[in-house]
Amino acid sequence: MNSLTKHLKKSIEIIEKNNINDDLWRLNFHLMPPVGWLNDPNGLCYFNGEYHVFFQYSPFDAKGALKFWGHYKSKDLINWEYLGVPLLPDQPFDCHGAYSGSSLVEDDKMYIYYTGNVKHTGENYDYINTGRGSNTILAISDGVNIINKKCLLTNNDYPKNLTCHVRDPKVFKENDVYYMVLGARTKEDKGVVLLYKSLDKINWTFLNTIETENTFGYMWECPDLFTLDNKTILMVSPQGLEEDGYKYQNIYQSGYFILNGDYKSCNYSLSSFTELDRGFDFYAPQTFLDNKNRRILIGWLGLPDIDPFYKNKTVENNWQHSLTIPRVLKIINDKLYQQPIEELKNLRKDKLIIENNKTYNVDSSFELIIENINNNIEIKLENDINILFKDNLFTLSFDTNDLGCGRSKRSVPLDFCNKLQIFVDHSSIEIFINDGEEVFSTRFYPKNRNIDLKISCNSDNILYPLDKYSIK
Ligand code: FRU
Fold this sequence. Notes:
Blueprint lengths: L2 H14 L19 E12 L2 E9 L9 E7 L5 E8 L10 E9 L2 E11 L12 E10 L4 E8 L8 E13 L2 E10 L4 E8 L6 E6 L8 E10 L2 E9 L15 E8 L4 E4 L3 E2 L7 E7 L5 E6 L18 E2 L6 E6 L2 E6 L7 E7 L4 E5 L1 E6 L6 E5 L3 E6 L2 E6 L2 H4 L4 E5 L6 E6 L2 E6 L4 E6 L6 E8 L8 E6 L1
Parallel strand pairs: 1-20
Antiparallel strand pairs: 1-2, 2-3, 3-4, 5-6, 6-7, 7-8, 9-10, 10-11, 11-12, 13-14, 14-15, 15-16, 15-17, 18-19, 19-21, 21-22, 23-34, 24-33, 25-30, 25-34, 26-27, 26-33, 27-28, 28-29, 30-31, 31-32
The protein binds beta-D-fructofuranose.
The site of beta-D-fructofuranose has 14 residues, from strand 1, strand 5, strand 9, strand 13 and strand 18.
C-alpha cells in the first residue's frame, strides 16, 4: 500500500466516525453511504456464499466529489455488513475517480472491472472531446482487499469516432469467452455501447458497437447485457432524451431494449426503449445472477444533476442517497417486471388492518400490500403525497414543496391496477404496480418518524381489508 492509499483510508475512517445515524431521514432497510454521497451500485455479485454490493462513494462531500468504491456484504440480502473502501483513486490511471464497473467471479477471486477517470489540467479542455482519460482497469480482489490493479485500455484503444466519455464496463462470460460492454458518447453526440471480447480477461478486442438506428440521447451510461427467459436485454442509462408525454420526465433515464438477433456481429435490431422506473429518483441500475439463478437488479435511488428541479434535504445532515431494494427480474409479454426480493418478508413485524377512508398515524417504515383492486384508488401520505390510480392513469404527486422539495408529478398510463406493493422507509417510497409491471421510486422528507396514512378506494364505501406490515 503506498502512503497516499494509507492516508486516504485513514481519512475516510476518521470521517466515517461522524455519527449521522440519529438523522430522522436515515433509512431502515436500504443501503446508504456511512457518511457523504452515494451513487451507482457497482460490482454486484454472489461470491463464496455471500452477496457483495459496492457503490460509488464520496465520503468527503455529501454533494459528490472524488469517487471511491464503498463495500457491503450480506448472507441474506437483508443484514448487511459494511466493509470499508477497498477501491481508491490512488493511481495515475484513476486519480480523478474510481468510476463505476462490475465484478466477474472466477477461481475464488473477484475480477473487478471499472473506469479510472483522469482529468488533465493546464489547458483549455472541454473534458468531452479533450482533457479526460477514461481508463478500463482490472482490480483483482479476494472479496475483501484489492490485490492488484492493472490498466487494460486507455482512450487510444477505443474506436476513433468517440469522445473521451467511455466508461462503466460490465463483464460477463459466455461459452468460455469473456465479453465487456462499455457506455460511450460519439463525436456526433450519440449514445452507444461498445462490445469487446477476451479469452483471458486481460487482452480485449473490440467487436462492434451496439446502437439504435437514430440517435437516442448523447451518452449511454452504465450498460448491462444479459439473457433472461430466452430474451437478450440491453440495459442502459441514456442522457439527453427529450421529454415525450409521460415518458422521460427526469433529467436522465434508465431502461432497456430487447435485442433481437446476434449482437456479436452487426446482425441485430433493438426494440423501442422502456423505462424501468417512473418515479423521481432512480438511475444507473445493474444486475447480477445469484446462486438461485435469480437475475437481481439494484439501482441508485437517486439521480445526478437534479438541482435546480428538486433537492434532497439529507445534504444538511452530511449524507445523500441510497440504493433501491433488490428487485428480481422476470419477462412477461416482452416486458421486464421487477419484483421485490422475497427475503424482505423476513422483515415483517406487526400487522395492522387498515380500513378504507380512515387516517392512521404509523411508523414510516412499512410494507403495504393492496390486492384485488378493481376500481380507482387513492393513497395519501402526510396529506401531501398522493398515490392515485384513476381513469387508467397511475400518478405519484406531491401537493406542496414541503415533503417533495421540488418533486411534482409523475404518471404512467395503465390498462388496469390490480395490485400495489409499497415500501416506505422513512424518506423513501418504492411502489410496485401489478407485481412489478411498473415501479415508482422517490425520496420524501417528512417532519417526523411517524406519518399519516389514508387509503380510499371505491365510491360505494365498500371496505377493503388492507394489511400493513411494520419492518423491524
Ligand atoms: C452514472 C455515472 C457513471 C460513472 C459514475 C461516476 O451515475 O456518471 O457513468 O461511472 O456515475 O460516479
